Amino acid sequence: MPRVVVKPEVCIGCHLCEVWCVVAHSRSKNILKAFLHETPRPVPRVVVEENLPFTLPVHCRHCIEPSCVEACISGALYRDPLTGRVEHDADRCVGCYSCVMACPYGAVVIDEVNRKIARCDLCKEMGEPACVKQCPNRALVYQDSFTS
Amino acid sequence: MERFDYLIIGNSVGAVGCIETLRSFDKGGSIAVIGEEPHHVYSRALLPYYLDQEVPVEKMLYRPVDFYERLGVTPVLGRRVVGLDTAGHVVKLDDGRTISYGKLLLATGGRPIVPPIPGLDTEKENICNFVALQDLQRISRLLPSAGRVVVLGGGIIGLMAAEALHKKGLEVGVVELAPRVLAPVVDEFTSRLIEEAFRRSGVAIYTGTTFKEVQGGERATGVVLTDGTSLPCDLLVVAVGVVPRVDLAREAGLAVNRGILVNQQMETSAADVYACGDCAEVYDFLMGNRRVLPLWPNAYAGGRVAAYNMLGMKREYDRATSMNAMHFFDLNIITAGLNTAGEKDGFEVISRFDAGSRSYRRFVLKDDRIHGFTLVTGIARAGIFLHLMRRGCAVTSFKEKLLEGEFGYLTIPEGLRRELLIDEGVMSEHAAANQ
Ligand SMILES: Cc1cc2nc3c(=O)[nH]c(=O)nc-3n(C[C@H](O)[C@H](O)[C@H](O)COP(=O)(O)OP(=O)(O)OC[C@H]3O[C@@H](n4cnc5c(N)ncnc54)[C@H](O)[C@@H]3O)c2cc1C
Ligand code: SF4
Ligand code: SF4
């Protein structure tokens, strides 16, 4: 599956992945505009856990048999068999949070303002995910391999 | 006679779980799905979300309109299966047609319960069930002329319907036979939080009582409760749950208890016949026995496991148990496993309520593992608990941490954390060696 893999031993807990995730999913794609002027501001789709000195970024795994898809009552979540990506169609999402209940990694982020959810979409329009590109310590690796 | 390699009865989520898995491995086998309802596959779980709207069917679709075409599935819609001959591998439709199959999946779901109460009859113009698109269409036609509604049933569906009708501006009363709402699903404290949220919003909840009778002729005009209270109404919604639809299976001689009995491979007692979803009794890994679990994820996952076994790839369904994500007014709730069990049943219960944020967490533990949990308000990352429960992980050493809002993988001791994350490729092997 295509996914972002973490090297927690080199993660310094700077949370820049969250910042750049917000920018990548903003309308302007501009860091200042996204943080100062966009309301509602997109939620970061990566969760950086902290239990100092340890930090651990957690992204959606794009599971082969995704529990979130199994639980999704609207069909908003589905796995694209051609790319191996698990996709979310926000228009169809009703905010039931069944996927929050189901995801074993806690990788579904609640977007309470819009009563929807958000998950790592691998920045599919941009080639490499923004968090991977911007991580100052190369703690995130984009693994593009696709096995059914 | 037409013949399909795979034939599915019931056009809903169980069917989709099966079809998507079949097609991942078998691109050429012929598949047909027979559905009594005339619609393309839609989600009945969306009914409460669209109760307040005149919705086009498209909004309710569970998969895109071209789903069957793309996956090479023949839909036979608006037709009911009335006979099953398991020896001959043939089903009979209500129009007299017969279809033969290689493998058959029964995903016939449930039938709404209408308790035997004088005057309670869903044939009446303003008494409705709440399980199918057709019920939603009926209710939305009645809404413009309705001011007062009574909902029978204080379970998840009844309460969701009550909230949606309240938000439409109707005066709503909910009647629940048990002494508290959602009694089979959550503990008493959570029931009280929910009842409070409803009462605060102006929805009347009557617990420990039911209808003695429904008044009126062709049109219900009100109900009288067993305690004597009279509630006038223009609309009556019956939401007391569903019973498995097993008539077809029973007549065909399959082993049936409350639901159609299946083993962990989702096989019924007849060769080449499988069952999943609301019509079946599946093995609950926490209870250690078979029971009906009328839940969306259970239907999908059961359909998937059935598909593997139909394909000859042996797979067992060993992760089924009860689980619910629900929300009422400002309360978000996620529960899974056994939540009505308590100390007297030999379980250890730990809980914490924060009055300020109104968040509540409760865990039911036994033999060093989680047997159930309830989260109210702070529901973020709930799936981690479900994961720990399904894998039977030892949690005693960090059980106090379960009650903390910021629980995550870094709260889990290192050894277990590695096992949970490396297996699944969250962390690289290299990272594990260096950490
Ligand atoms: C209002 C509502 C809200 C819900 N919300 C949730 C929720 O939030 N989360 C959750 O986990 N669960 C929820 N559920 C439960 C969930 O919808 C069911 O568990 C799920 O739909 C079961 O799927 P299924 O495939 O087993 O069968 P069903 O969805 O019941 O479908 C069975 C289909 O088979 C057809 N059929 C039956 N017999 C025949 C026959 N002989 N010939 C042809 N066709 C036949 C029926 O007409 C029906 O269309 C909700 C249910 C309702 C009613
Ligand atoms: S959200 Fe969770 S369950 Fe769904 S694909 Fe991502 S990691 Fe898997
Ligand atoms: S919150 Fe949205 S994506 Fe998640 S299960 Fe519900 S409808 Fe599907």
UniProtKB/TrEMBL annotation, chain A:
InterPro entries: 4Fe4S_Fe-S-bd, 4Fe4S_Fe_S_CS, ET_IronSulfur_Cluster-Binding. Keywords: 4Fe-4S, Electron transport, Iron, Iron-sulfur, Metal-binding, Repeat, Transport. It comes from the Bacteria. One of its GO terms (molecular function) is metal ion binding. PROSITE patterns: 4FE4S_FER_1, 4FE4S_FER_2. Residues 2-30, 84-113 form the 4Fe-4S ferredoxin-type domain. Gene3D superfamilies: 3.30.70.20. SUPFAM superfamilies: 4Fe-4S ferredoxins (SSF54862). The keyword Repeat applies. This is 4Fe-4S dicluster domain-containing protein. It comes from Desulfofundulus salinus.
Automatic annotation (TrEMBL), chain B:
Signal peptide: none annotated. GO terms for molecular function: oxidoreductase activity. Gene3D superfamilies: FAD/NAD(P)-binding domain. InterPro entries: FAD-bd_OxRdtase (IPR050260), FAD/NAD-bd_sf (IPR036188), FAD/NAD-binding_dom (IPR023753). Residues 4-303 form the FAD/NAD(P)-binding domain. It holds the Pfam family Pyr_redox_2. Its cofactor is FAD. The keyword S-adenosyl-L-methionine does not apply. Keywords: FAD, Flavoprotein. Transmembrane segments: none annotated. This is NAD(P)/FAD-dependent oxidoreductase. The lineage of its organism: Bacteria, Bacillati, Bacillota, Clostridia, Eubacteriales.
